[in-house]
Write a structure and sequence with these properties.
This protein is mostly helical and 295 residues long. The chain has 11 helices and 2 strands. It has helices at residues 3-8, 26-39, 52-72, 100-111, 113-116, 140-149, 174-186, 199-209, 218-225, 242-257, 264-294, and strands spanning 154-157, 160-163. A two-stranded antiparallel ribbon has the order 1-2. The protein starts with a helix and ends with a helix.
Length: 295
């Protein structure tokens, strides 16, 4: 074996004088690997879970922030900032005037069009019409009872028979019931020429019949109010006469305009005219007395 071959292949397993002379033993490799293992964590899939402490802290802060906004939001007014203002503590403007026709139309669109249709003509043989209806133009107490407790069984409306059930709407407020009945009874869209329904009347009927759970029938309603004829009129004194309303409006307008200015000139002229004859009479008496003394 040549010297070159001996360098490449040393005898008896001795290391070569080249790269193998600097190689690591197994113990050295294990030491290096153990150091690397201490410095780096084992790789894992996905993300590590958030500690429960931070989750609980986030929930507590969110709850506190919600309470703070509720108490100090100022009703989220765009032109108002006052962290001490309580919600709903605005200026009391008194009761607001409600347009009963507009409110009644909205209530009708939300609750009644499914059966009575937008036109108010209903469905033949199923849902009775509200247009030019003898039931609608009759006493409002009958309609209030139907809205509060519902209606079931056969009914005769404008001479036609209908057989179905009406759902009670006692969840509506007194104002909403009065508004929708006023809209149906007085709106030109339904061709009914009747009277408005007051909120107080709905409150009275609810206090007396609001606890009823069974729907009304035509026979029960006729036993209380008689047959529906459509020519109902309020009792005398319930509706003010037209001339009384006109006089009340005139008085109200006169009070708003204030007292009329007094006309002093005519009174002075009248006083002058009344005083002129008196002066003439006194002068004539003076002349007569002077003549008598001369004689």
């Amino acid at each position: 074996m040549s010297d070159d071959q001996k360098d490449k292949f040393p005898p008896k397993g001795e290391s070569r004088s080249t790269f193998e002379g600097t190689r690591f033993d197994d113990t050295d490799l294990q030491k290096v690997h153990s150091q690397l293992m201490r410095e780096k964590e084992e790789p894992s899939e996905n993300f590590s879970p958030m500690p429960l402490f931070f989750v609980a802290l986030f929930m507590i802060l969110s709850f506190w922030a919600g309470i703070y906004l509720v108490h100090y939001s100022g009703d989220f007014g765009p032109f108002h900032y006052d962290e001490t203002k309580k919600p709903g503590a605005g200026i009391e403007e008194g009761p607001r005037e409600v347009d009963m026709m507009a409110l009644g139309k909205r209530i009708y669109s939300q609750n009644c069009v499914a059966c009575h249709q937008t036109s108010g003509l209903g469905l033949p043989g199923v849902y009775p019409p509200l247009v030019d209806s003898d039931w609608v133009q009759d006493t409002p107490n009958r309609l209030i009872k139907i809205v509060l407790s519902g209606l079931a069984g056969k009914v005769q409306v404008n001479g036609q028979e209908y057989n179905n059930a009406m759902t009670p709407f006692n969840r509506l407020s007194d104002q909403q019931i009065a508004a929708v009945l006023t809209f149906v009874r007085t709106s030109p869209e339904f061709e009914n020429d009747s009277y408005a329904v007051s909120e107080d009347l709905v409150k009275e009927v609810r206090a007396e019949y609001g606890s009823r759970t069974d729907p009304w029938s035509q026979q029960e309603l006729e036993a209380i109010h008689g047959p529906a004829t459509g020519d109902w009129k309020p009792p005398a004194g319930a509706e003010p006469a037209a001339d009384e309303e006109a006089s009340a409006d005139e008085e109200a307008s006169a009070e708003e305009e204030g007292p009329a200015p007094e006309e002093e000139a005519p009174a002075e002229e009248a006083g002058d005219e009344a005083g002129a004859p008196a002066e003439e009479g006194s002068s004539e008496e003076a002349t007569g007395s002077s003549e008598g003394s001369g004689n």
